[in-house]
Design a protein that fits this description.
- 2 copies of one chain form a homodimer.
- By secondary structure, chain A is an all-alpha fold.
- Helices cover 74% and strands 0% of the residues of chain A.
- The first copy, chain A, has 2 domains: 45 residues, Homeodomain-like (Arc Repressor Mutant, subunit A), CATH 1.10.10; 144 residues, Orthogonal Bundle (Tetracycline Repressor, domain 2), CATH 1.10.357.
- Chain A contains 9 helices and no strands.
- At the A-B interface, helix 8 of A face helix 8 of B.
- The structure holds a DNA duplex.
DNA sequence: GTCTATAAGAGGATAGAC
DNA sequence: GTCTATCCTCTTATAGAC
């Protein structure tokens, strides 16, 4: 899977950006682990910052493409089933690669001042995409009166995304994966108390 | 409240260590905001590292001293009331100074490699103190058969602390304070489903 | 593509004057 | 206590050889 200098650079850089953080990770350390001299990295990337954002975008892109590729969401099934499917698949996806989610959490919670502006733009770009996916299903729920529209569609979307992120964060921090059984019990508790309440 | 050079140094350093992180915060920046030259800081602290740990310990010490000072925990009342009181008071304390809790979360989740060893020791020292406080009450619950001892005391302690930290983390990340009403509903849901389950 | 060499600057920390 | 001056190291990034 990891072949070629560029792949190695990206692999090592991701690891160090996650563990040590952007500022504390230096080009020499990355290159030392890759097995090249620091100057060689500049053949692949114009700067440390470009390398970072290339990785940051890839992590987000992988996640969004996964969400968009969930077949159930395009099938003609009840939209509330779509909501729980999206929750289940998201938790499973994140469980399989907690490091990537921890990476996203790190740079969301503690953005380096040096790159904070671009980071916020990119964060908005990607979370907007995420919202779009959720938005379509929630809208379907409202249209088909599965959700009774006592609250605004926007509120439903926010609550749903907050619910998912909350449990992903829990997994990252406690480093314990949520089991399939738990997914359903968490979902029904959320569905009953938050989405259906008047 | 903030008078004297040392207080100013600690105030500014805390702010920058929280926002920019340990590595990205440099002595010159701290001193510039304080209004002194970098060399003057070394009159108060031997190193940047010493300054950091002095602040880190103070944040923890304030929290532990607050927990130890809760009167209800020393009174002769039912131990399950003590548990909910400790939860309520902790949430209130953290609500009043989310920045300090975010500081602790930052260095727990993403410890700088340069100081990781000392950080882990100190973290263990302070969380052991925290466990001690909880431990006393849980033991009282088990002794008085308020908790039915279907699980080990250690498990009860872990679950209780995890429960509290989970909600503090939620407040930090969502930046929304938990209301008094919510505290009780969260508590009873936790009490019934986690502590009393067989 | 990868190297050596090096520029240009930022960082932690110290010496010693006042 | 606070300053100026300075040391030494680390860092990003570039120039140009191979």
């Amino acid at each position: 899977m990891i072949s070629g200098t560029n792949d190695k650079i990206r692999y090592v850089a991701f690891k160090l950006f996650l563990e040590k953080g952007y500022e504390a990770t230096n080009v020499r350390d990355i290159c030392k682990e890759v097995g090249i001299k620091a100057s060689s990295l500049y053949f692949y990337y114009q700067s440390k910052q470009e390398l970072f954002f290339s990785i940051y975008d890839e992590v987000w892109n992988d996640k969004i493409r996964f969400l968009e590729s969930i077949e159930e969401l395009r099938q003609d099934i009840s939209p509330d089933i779509k909501l729980i499917t999206l929750f289940k698949k998201t938790v499973e996806y994140c469980s399989n690669d907690l490091a990537k989610q921890k990476f996203l959490l790190r740079y969301h919670l503690f953005p380096p001042q040096e790159i904070i502006k671009i980071l916020r733009e990119k964060y908005k770009f990607w979370t907007d995409k995420e919202s779009g996916i959720v938005s379509d299903i929630i809208q379907e729920c409202v249209d088909k009166k599965v959700l009774r529209c006592s609250r605004s569609t926007t509120d439903y979307i926010k609550d749903y995304i907050k619910f998912i992120n909350f449990h992903i964060t829990e997994m990252i921090i406690s480093n314990i994966k949520i089991s399939s059984n738990e997914i359903y019990s968490l979902w029904f508790s959320f569905w009953n108390s938050n989405l259906l309440k008047q």
